[in-house]
Amino acid sequence: MMARQKNRIGFTLIELLVVIAIIAILMAILMPALNRVREQGKRIVCENNLKTLQLCWIMYADDNDGKIVNGEGGFNHTSGSLTEIAWIGHGWGANWDQPNAATVGTLTDAQKKRAIEDGALWEYVKDYDVYKCPTGRRGECVTYAAVDSMNARARNGTWTGGNHVTATGLRNGRTVLWIKRLNEISSPSPAQRMVFIDEGAMTPDSFAVHYDNPGPWWDDPPARHGDGTTVSWADGHVSHLKWKAAETITWARDHRDYYGSGSFMPQTPEGKEELEDFRKAVWGKLGY
Fold first, then answer.
1. 15-23 LR contacts (CB < 8 Å, sep 24+)
2. What total of structural domains would you count in the chain?
3. Is residue 27 part of a domain?
4. Contacts (Cβ under 8 Å, ≥6 apart) of 187
5. Which of 20, 38, 130, 188 would you label with 44, given CA atoms 20 to 30 Å apart?
6. Domain that holds residue 236
7. Residue 105 has pLDDT above 80, yes or no
């Protein structure tokens, strides 16, 4: 009689390699999609954070007879006996503009959190997580900044008189550049005037933007959430501002850990238009 053939159990080496290859191919296909989903989730958290800060910004003005909060992070405004507490306290270290500033910086986490508590908006949102995007630079406690025009750092051509005392004289029904009160935002509309921006880390004062200088970006465009950044607007809405020009995206990626170089001058029509649109969103108009 012929011996019965034994049932084969397990895989041959070739079969095992084929299975591994199939799994590797599937992972290569799925991982980019999973990463996009993960990033999308973080972007939604960031937008919700900005939405909360923006609504608190409006609430502060409502509670203070229409006067908006001091947007110059880390610097209180003083005029005579009047002091305007900054929306956020001094929470950056001595080497804030370096790639590893947050992890080897001169401030502890407790000091950074104290800076949040010292801010005028802490009374309205007592949650440390709201002040930071989940994709912010490691070790940072604050990643958002107000833009210059929102009662922050007045730039050349945007104010008259003493700095932080009186703003621009263009107030008679026309565009007000350096905003002190909600009712000064009229042309363009509040939906077109930027307030907060996610720059990925805490830096001194506010997000700097030239008004009367047709030259370069002042603070570098942030590379956040898929070659753009999240911003909030004076009417309360939040959006993702995606850079369109390839040169803007390249510069933003290459300088994501450095701030305020003031050396990026777009060369393409798309890049120049993008910069002008950003300036209009901050100041309401161009000063040149």
1. none
2. 1
3. no
4. 173, 174, 175, 284
5. 188
6. 45-283
7. no
Cβ-Cβ contacts under 8 Å for 72 (sequence gap 6 or more): 86, 146, 151, 152, 153, 205, 206
SS3 282: helix
Is residue 200 within 8 Å of residue 137, measured between CB atoms?
A: yes
Task: Tell me the CA distances in angstroms from 185 to 151, 182, 189, one per residue in order.
Answer: 12, 6, 6
Question: What does 155-216 look like in DSSP terms, one character per residue?
Answer: -TTS--SSTTT---S--SSS--SSB-BGGG--SS-GGGSEEEEE-SS--SBSB---SS--S-
**By C-alpha distance, which of 273, 251, 250 is closest to 263?**
251
Q: 31 in a domain, yes or no?
A: no
User: Between residues 223 and 31, which one has the greater pLDDT?
Assistant: 223
Interatomic CA distance for residues 167 and 68, integer angstroms: 13
Cα–Cα distance measured from residue 206 to residue 89, given in angstroms and rounded to the nearest whole number: 12
**What is the strand order of the sheet 144-146 is part of?**
144-146, 194-198, 228-233, 238-242
- Tens digits of residue pLDDT in 115-157: 999 999 999 999 999 999 998 888 889 999 999 999 998 888 8
Distance between CA atoms of 235 and 57, rounded to whole angstroms?
A: 10
Distance CA 67, CA 175 (A): 17
Domain-embedded: residue 9: no
In whole angstroms, what is the distance from residue 193 CA to residue 64 CA? 20
Residue listed under structure tokens 């001091």:
70
Q: Are β-strands 238-242 and 228-233 bridged in parallel, bridged antiparallel, or unpaired? A: antiparallel
Give domain status of residue 275, yes or no.
Answer: yes
Q: What is the mean pLDDT of the chain?
A: 85
Instruction: Tell me the whole-structure pTM to 2 decimals.
Output: 0.83
